[in-house]
Amino acid sequence: MCMIDYIRELINAGITSFKIEGRLRRPAYVAYMTKIYSEAKKLILKNKKFNTSEIIENIKKLFYRGEYNNGLYLLESNSSKIINQEFQNHRGVLIGSVIEVKPFKDIYQLLIITNGYEIKQNDGLKFVYNQQEQSIGVGGVKKQVKNNHYLVYTKTKPKEQSEVYLTVDSAWETELENQTKKLKFSAIFEGKVGKKPLLKLKCGKVEISQVLFENLEKAK
Predict the structure, then answer these.
(1) Alpha-carbon span 86 to 107, nearest angstrom
(2) Crossing angle for the helix pair 170-177 and 27-45, nearest 10 degrees?
(3) What is the CB neighbour count within 10 angstroms for residue 173?
(4) Which is nearest to 188 in space by CA: 197, 175, 199?
(5) CA-CA distance, 97 to 219, in Å (whole number)?
């Protein structure tokens, strides 16, 4: 279920708290979903529009096992969309196909053509052929041997013409996990010999003052 297109309706219905499903998901999934739903809520409360097509494509890279639905009891009338009978786990997004498989020392060299996506080390790929799946983590990869063609080295031997799905975009997920939320604040420290030191902190409309218990002594 994916309700990013219906946040406005849910807010207008009076809902003030949303639970974002994230059990057994990677940290990058939790980071991205929290971020985009928070941004969507802020835009809607300001009566601004937002485009979800790119958002949904990004979500697919993080966790996707068939078409998303909008909830059987709310909008859908087709119960066959609620449970996907083909995939039980993360499928990812289609980025290309395997056009050649060759033995290479004690592993295999795969030639993959993509739709423009740059395959990178530490990415996760899934090969699908006649509904049979094989997953790998990209260890060795040669950047484009020619336009949108990549050599990937793996112990897995997929069949030629297998569809290639991206299950982990390593660089993007690292970027998501390294996000930090920074807030500007001011700090004033007052210290005088014979008096208790005082620290004042201010962040937005919140102000905090803390007095230490001991009087300051002159340095010796």
Answers:
(1) 30
(2) 70
(3) 21
(4) 199
(5) 73
Most confident listed range (1-5, 62-66, 126-130, 178-182): 126-130
Say whether pLDDT at 114 is over 90. Answer: yes
* Encoded tokens for 24: 């057994």
| pLDDT above 70 for 81 | no
Say which residue the tokens 């996907």 belong to.
84
**Closest residue by Cα to residue 139 from 113, 103, 117, 168:** 168
Cβ contact 183:196 at 8 Å: no
Q: What are phi and psi of 36, to 5 degrees?
A: -75, -35
Within 10 A of 61 (CB to CB), how many other CB atoms are there?
A: 23
